[in-house]
Design brief:
The chain has 244 residues and is of the alpha/beta class. It contains nine helices and ten strands. Strands 6-7-8-3-9-10 form a six-stranded mixed β-sheet, with helices on both faces.
Length: 244
């Protein structure tokens, strides 16, 4: 089944169109990456799918359900987003327990205490973190909480916006291994934005290279690993990564 289906997607901010005619299908269970320079429209696509960029035209479907431009609870139960900055995405005055319980309260889901405890365990945090505040956690711990919060509604799709770029290199590997395990255990579909092609090689099955709001190439990760990208711009991105 197709988890995410985008057809002729245009996205604008005011008078500026930043995504042009993107068409993309991501099967259930796949991990797919959007790569490209800053400003190429990658994160904007995630925001439109999540309902955070309402000025779009075309079609966005999640498991066959066409997304509306307004708040769409059916989609939000299926799709959740993990942001780049784990500190900025967590309320500084709310405990971890409150942050994880909030989605459950919004959607009227019970057994909140049990669910919070289970999700903390799933992301590798013990119960002593439950009533701490974000400033009492390390960056990696905060990102684990952000992932836990995204999973509280048991979505089938995670939108990952540079989920490790704000973390130390040693912590990045821990979070990537966590995401890989969660994908396997919960049969999740990933759509990830990243500048880091080694991350794509580790976590993803396919990738789309974006430039100026358009997809210029879609490739398998095997092609990426072999350096077998077709477009000049894609090869330039790969060369820049290898040379950095």
């Amino acid at each position: 089944m197709i988890a995410i289906d985008l057809k002729n997607l245009d996205i604008s901010y005011g008078d500026s169109k930043v995504v042009h005619g993107v068409t993309l299908s991501i099967p259930e269970g796949e991990s797919f990456a959007l790569v490209g320079e800053s400003g190429s429209g990658k994160s904007t696509i995630l925001r439109a799918i999540a309902g955070l960029a309402p000025d779009w035209e075309g079609e966005i479907s999640v498991f066959g359900h066409k997304r509306s431009h307004s708040i769409d609870r059916a989609v939000s139960r299926q799709v959740q987003m993990v942001f780049q900055d784990p500190y900025g995405s967590l309320h500084p005055r709310k405990t971890i327990d409150a942050a994880l319980s909030e989605p459950l309260a919004i959607h009227g889901i019970g057994n909140r205490g049990e669910r919070v405890e289970a999700m903390l365990k799933a992301v590798g945090l013990d119960q002593r973190f439950r009533f701490r505040f974000p400033h009492q956690l390390s960056g990696g711990q905060r990102q684990r909480v952000a992932i836990a919060r995204a999973l509280m509604l048991e979505p089938k799709i995670l939108l990952l916006d540079e989920p490790t770029s704000a973390l130390d290199v040693s912590v990045q590997a821990e979070i990537l291994n966590l995401l890989k395990r969660l994908r396997r255990e919960q049969n999740l579909t990933f759509l990830m934005v990243t500048h880091n092609l080694p991350v794509v090689s580790f976590l993803c099955d396919r990738l789309a290279v974006m430039r100026h709001g358009r997809i210029v190439e879609i490739a398998d990760v095997a092609q990426l690993k072999a350096g077998d990208l077709k477009q000049d711009y894609s090869r330039e991105l790969l060369a820049a990564t290898e040379g950095s």
